[in-house]
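pipeline/complex-builder :: batch 7 item 3
reading input block
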Amino acid sequence: MKELIRELTEEFGPSGSEDAVRELIKKRISDQVNEARVDPLGNLIAFKQGRAKRGVQRRKIMLAAHMDEIGVIISHVDEKGFLRFARVGGVRPLHLLGSRVIFDDGRIGVIGREKPEKRTEFPVVDKMFIDVGVPGKEQLTKKVGDVAAFVRPFVDLGQRLVAKAFDDRIGCAVLVQTVLDLETTPHDVYFVFTVQEELGLRGALTSAFGVEPDAAIAVDVTGTGDTPEAHPMAVSLGAGPAIKVKDGGMLAHPGIKNWMARTAQRLELPHQFEVLEGGTTDAMAIQTSRAGVAAGVLSIPCRYVHSPSEMVDYNDVQNAVKLLVGLLRGPVDI
Amino acid sequence: MLLRELSEAFGVSGHEDAVRQLILDAVKDLVDEYRVDALGNLIAVKRASSQGRRRVMVAAHMDEVGLMIMHVEKEGALRFRPVGGIDPRVLLAKKVRIGEDKVPGVIGVKPIHLLEPKAREQVVPVKEMSIDIGASSKEEAERLVRIGDYAAFDVSFGELGGDLRTVKGKAFDDRAGCAVLIELLRESYSFEFHAAFTVQEEVGARGARVAAHAIAPDIAFALEGTICDDMPKKRDVSPTTSLGAGPAITIMDRSVVADRRLVELLVDTAKQKGIPYQFKQPGLGGTDAGTIHLSREGVPSVVVSVPSRNIHSPVCLLSLNDLDNTVRLMRETLARVHECDLGREA
């Protein structure tokens, strides 16, 4: 599964430009599902039809992971060919200094900064620029509206993995692996790879309207409290996938939460409960779709979220896949 | 000129009636059917001239930013709050019209003689401003004005001229879009054309949300009057848009990532037909497209805007060249919108 994770994290896909990620996922799963379609906003919706199983009521289940990552978009090209930019999603200015970005054609740029008035001045995006290394504006091929992602190779540290865009390519990897490992299910399962989560859960909103599920689980990253002097949070890397109770945007459906916890116990999979103070996931938009959907979240604990070097634990990832496969093979007990 | 009437009509968010009536009079003979929905959107439909099955929504919002009366002081002064985003610095000493009877008033300002040096550098908060309608008591004021009445800027449309054919007036955001949309209704199209003149954009694109749900379009365009910050600056940074440089195409703003296929169609059309165009600085502002594209299963959407200096102030400026070119670009683009492949192979 590490090769799948590497491929997914290294792919280019800032919000609104998820095409390459979608192509990659499609390639990996299209043989294993009954149908894969792309909806008007670009969500990939892969459908696996349920096979009737005695004593199990067939339900329509939506699993969601977002394909998009944070990035930048060119907002102005100056006379010398330097590129001013705006943020795509929750990019932290501190992470920008010294960062490299890559455009969809492979061109690399580095981020520079105007001379600060004081050494301690906090960096602001308005005073930064991208330098793509052309001697003058005439040689520049980049224009206003071009989008770039951060450049960082995937690193396998053994137990722990480091990459950009674990948020939420690790969720995509978990769903892809779940499709591959599932074989059969008594449920109609929609694996939805969403767009534009980082801009406000937009793809999840429209895809949930289209799928109209009975129950939904988003798979996304969550923060941890296990680093030096971290903001207190009872989630640790390596303690198992986290079953969300609450975050900044939603209260998880208690039935979904308990269904996940019971299944994890039954399969003897390590797991932890998550209460996240800020931030939310696609499940928030799915929960309030149409007349409402029982929705929860299976989170992959992740350090340094929204930095170019996010870190996850490989066991947590594999256990998340096992838990999802277990959930989909049995009755939806919510 | 229709833009003059549109600009001078009062239509602060939530009370767009006069603007709607004006537009209705202008379009009712151009369309096959029209209706006003529960929130006050005017939706006018032109059926397809051929067998086109696609449904295209083109939206422009009727509402403008303005003020609402909150409280009457015992001396007869009216306290107010902004409706929509208004910089308090543009309010002082401006003329307004209040309520159904268009009661004239002026927003009070403390003379410079009375200002301490420090106060001259500070922005007067809206809470401390009041409107003077010439009343000398609460009772007198309340005979003319009620709590909850809207106030709109009292500004006449005018022409500055020049090569850019610059005009001034209030509410070019988004009466410019309304003017363009009305012009578009004079043509016939190979698809079902749903023109939505929407309400309450300035308070959260609310009208567009329900209009899009009802129309359920395959594609949407929002027409706007947008930010233009092209006066001389020391730093080499974006003007957002430039006056006279043609219609501004949105790639991404705070509310929407425009559908790339529609952006490409607009750009290709502009190049083919020799129509000037520009990209709006990405990352700024929000429009009706923000709620339209999230309607139902999602709607590929894009925004095309007429650049306007001083938007959200009493006196906006735009170039009639830009306005005409926006009509041209939209007309030519809509004529080939069927070429846009909306299917995505999966």
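note: The first strand of chain A starts at residue 35 and ends at 38.
queue -> next item
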